[in-house]
Design brief:
It is a single chain. This protein is α/β, with parallel strands linked by helices. It has one domain (11-248): 3-Layer(aba) Sandwich (Rossmann fold). The protein has helices at residues 11-25, 32-42, 57-68, 89-101, 135-140, 151-154, 157-164, 167-172, 183-186, 199-205, 221-231, and strands at 47-50, 81-85, 106-109, 119-121, 132-134, 146-149, 173-178, 212-216, 238-241. The strands form two sheets. The protein has a seven-stranded parallel beta sheet. Residues 38-237 form the Helicase ATP-binding domain. Keywords: DNA-binding, Hydrolase, Isomerase.
């Protein structure tokens, strides 16, 4: 079942997606790299998102979803899915809870989840509820807009059988996100979390042509080349990046001229016109 990218993007839908995303997450506007990444996904273009920590990777991840859907939308044709693989179970659980509280149905399934193929308690995500649902119905039958999984869970036959083989899931997934993509290189080895180097197995089980977004703040050229090789992505994969350069920060080395306990050498850190203020 191949992924069907959009040839032309609707300007009005892009505008509405931006507004809804900003309203839900409480930000005044989206940054260019967020909209560029999101539009790449909608067009079926896999993208390396290389931006500093705090640069807003997650809004770039969710933008394609909001092009089709907004909280409260029940139209079956709009119930798209973002699948995210991340390295930290606690962080993904926190993200799932935060998304759900904002009206975006989300669930995190990791190697620490007890009996995921059995009955899951929605109270893990909705603390105020005690309803019980089946794992297969919840994810495989498209009950969540964002599904977060660990690499260990993502490549299991269990996840393949209960989620990835379900027609409703395959028809509605629009993006595979790999967060903290540098872990593919730094962790994916025989000594520590080898599943990171085997995520191509997951990609092979997803619809052909599905766009992949690999996000990180640590992707120098050698890491990028390794990521592309291990995920078996095209060498000319699109790249959206921001510099880590901080123009308001500088390093200076000075020889101490005064006794250390006087702190007199610190005076050079204060502007000359700041005396008496």
């Amino acid at each position: 079942m191949p992924f069907k990218p959009l040839v032309d993007l609707d300007p009005e839908k892009l505008k509405t997606a931006t507004k809804n995303l900003c309203d839900v997450f409480g930000v005044p506007t989206l940054r260019p790299h967020q909209t560029e990444t999101g539009e790449n996904v909608l067009k079926g273009i896999s993208t390396l998102l290389d931006i500093p920590t705090g640069g807003g990777k997650t809004l770039a991840y969710w933008f394609p979803l909001f092009y089709y859907w907004a909280p409260g939308n029940t139209d079956p044709a709009c119930q798209k899915i973002i699948l995210l693989v991340g390295p930290l179970s606690a962080l993904m659980q926190s993200q799932a809870l935060s998304l759900t509280q904002k009206g975006v149905p989300a669930i995190a399934i990791t190697s620490t989840t007890e009996n995921p193929e059995q009955v899951l308690k929605v109270g893990h995500i909705y603390p105020q509820k005690t309803t019980y649902i089946n794992f297969q119905q919840a994810i495989g039958e498209n009950k969540y807009r964002v599904v977060l999984v660990s690499p260990e869970m993502a490549i299991t036959s269990k996840f393949q059988d209960l989620v990835l083989s379900k027609k409703s899931f395959l028809q509605n997934i629009i993006s595979q996100v790999i967060d903290e993509g540098h872990c593919i290189t730094e962790w994916g080895n025989d000594d520590f979390r080898p599943e990171f180097s085997k995520l191509h197995v997951l990609l092979a089980r997803l619809p052909s042509g599905l766009p992949v977004v690999v996000g990180s703040a640590t992707m120098p050229r050698d890491v990028i080349l390794d990521i592309l090789a291990k995920l078996r992505l095209r060498a000319d994969c699109a790249r959206v990046s921001l510099s880590n350069e901080k123009l308001n920060i500088a390093l200076s080395v000075r020889i101490l001229q005064h006794p250390q306990d006087t702190f007199a050498d610190l005076m050079t850190l204060f502007p000359r016109d700041s005396a008496g203020t």
